[in-house]
Write a structure and sequence with these properties.
Chain B: One of its GO terms (biological process) is heme A biosynthetic process. The structure holds 2 protein chains of 2 kinds. By secondary structure, chain A is an all-alpha fold. Chain A has helices spanning 2-15, 26-36, 41-55, 78-84, 99-103, 105-108, 147-156, 171-201, 218-233, 250-260, 268-271, 286-290, 302-311, 335-344, 367-382; strands at 89-90, 96-97. Chain A is globular, with a radius of gyration of 23 Å. The two termini of chain B are 36 Å apart. At the A-B interface, helix 1, strand 1, helix 5 and helix 6 of A face helix 3, helix 5 and helix 8 of B.
Chain lengths: 389, 352
Amino acid sequence: MRPVILLCLLLAIGCDAAIDQFPANDVYALTLAHSRDVRTELAQRDVAEVIRSLFGTPESPVWPSEIFDGEAKSLVKSESLTAAAGPIFSDREGNNFGLFNKHCVACHGVSGSGAGPAAVFQNPYPRDFQAGVFKWKSTERSAKPTRDDLVGLLHRGVKGTGMPSFALVSEADVSALTDYLVYLSVRGEAERKLLAFAIDELGYDDSEDDSSEFLIEDADVHQIVGEIVESWLDASKRGVPVPKEVASNTDSIARGKDLFHGQIANCVGCHGPGGNGAAVTLDFDDWAKEYSSRIGLTPTNRDAMKPFRQAGALRPRQIKPRQLNQGVLRGAGDGKAIYRQISQGIAGTPMPSLTITKQESATGLTSDQVWDLVHYVQSLGSQPGDTLP
Amino acid sequence: MNMEPEPSSAELTKDDPSSSRIVHRLAVLSVCLVWPLIWVGGLVTTYDAGMAVPDWPNTYGYNLFLYPYKTWLLGPFDLFIEHGHRLLGAVVGFVAIGLAVAAYLKETRRWVFWFAVAVLLAVIFQGALGGIRVVQMSRTLAMVHGCFGPAFFAACVALAVVTSRSWRDSCPADRGQSAITELAQVPRSTVILGLVLVALGYTQLVLGAQLRHVQPTMRPDGFATIVVFHVVTAFVLWSVTAVGYWRMRKLKSCCGDLTLWRPAAALIGLVLLQIVLGTGTWVANYGWPTFLQGFPGATGFLIRAKGFWDSIVVTAHVATGSLILAVSTMIWVRSWRLRYCSQSASEVANET
């Protein structure tokens, strides 16, 4: 009995060893392998080395400022990485460290893959930062969020999900977490793009199994990482301007109701009559589609998904359009945020963007019409019993 | 030292100093201190404040008892609860020392003295575990520390039970009396049931600790498996408490024995409360589960990191788990005692 207990104790302590490297993105590697019909092990090996030398480890993360110029050098502050990474502790002055492990890692995972230990029971799944796609932002659909968007999201949290509000957490801690989130996203996106580049452009798919030739050039790495960082710096220039709001009154709400159930916006097609969520939809978000329908696999086919699940992917889960009549809107939830969500759609989801026209037309909506829609959506939340059109 | 052989039944009477009040009172005091200690320790984990003081056994270089109280009381909250946890732990340690000394001086039952010594060693071990967890910055040792605490609490409860007057009074045969008809006849299955309650209660604590001290590298499937086991075992435990209550009720109706029936009744309520608190803990950490989305307010529920009431719910779940283990232990030890007494009484009756 005693040896068994001792063994269990040793095993348990062994599990507590420092995390000396970020987990590789095996799901994306498998996606590439499946879509290109190639082997990716060698490319993964060399990309992992490049990424580790550039970005460090979970215990000692590094922002590779030496390869950047200008603003990019300070996009992520090294003191923020120090505060956010590594084990959890605090000092005598109350400064906190290990913030990501304290607040985020259980859901988002060590590398920000969104597949942390507690991810599986959450709906929606925690965000995978590695794809560099974010839902709740003030910028264009394809743009990165601004820093203010991320800070705002952390403060607000996301109602009805596992994402908490950090309103009670100090500004310094929220700022450090924001930097670490950007760091993880840049690191993860760089890993993905380098892997795709190595396979598509450098001939890693043809390499012999025992090849020790290192094919990735520094110049290529710097260019790929530089472009990702540039997209973060450009975010503030890609904000979506919100035109002046039309008067919010019963007329505007009535017009919005017609648009909601009309052919152009066709919100009813997904959100159901009166936003009651009764429409039948069978869609998935982009994170799940990447390793399923986009490479010709059926998301609901358990056998097809099994290799991806073993690689660390979460089971694809259908995305449900928001039930607007419950009055719970994710994102900032104010008029401007809803305007942006209607006009730009929501990145990573089936929620499409609209064409904004100057004149009323059959192909798009004017900004005034979008505001009418906004007012109607806002009115739904205030009349929970009024679900019928 | 009065370390004599176990006294014969004739030597023991109600007035006998061997049923030492001081030992029992110290045992009860330790129970009364350990539960708050578990609360504070739970808060430390809830706030991830275990590493708010980086050294051990000192506190920022100060002797534990000499750390400036103003800096402690007015400093960061994490430091306040971690240092407070250490101080309260030290108090429990002193009480355990007093308990062992009192048992050495006053207790005639040798095994009770050794039991008190074991409790003292356990509190030393627990303190060392907590200290090494700090020095090693180990979450796993924090989990072991968190699991050992309730076991220590249960041991204190058992010690309080065996030093109580009711323990002595429950065995007239020990005093040469043969009041057989007053004694509840406790079947072996009831004692086993008590043991099952203890085992299930402790299993739940260990499973819960795995979730609470989750390793960042654990796979989601592993975490989900533990969650499922934790939930299923909770309902199994609740069912067993109902069976236990039914068994103890028979003892009450036949023989008027309330020493098992009352805690058995309390246990049903405690496990129900624990299930509610467990749901609250999940909600406070991860939001409403999908199958409870129809619950009023679930769709708009917002989790608040470091929310005070959220942390109280989570910590109450931890503390109630320990209480369930303690009450189960009380039932098990008492049922074992009653069975022993009823058998002894039967033997006395047969002899006469």
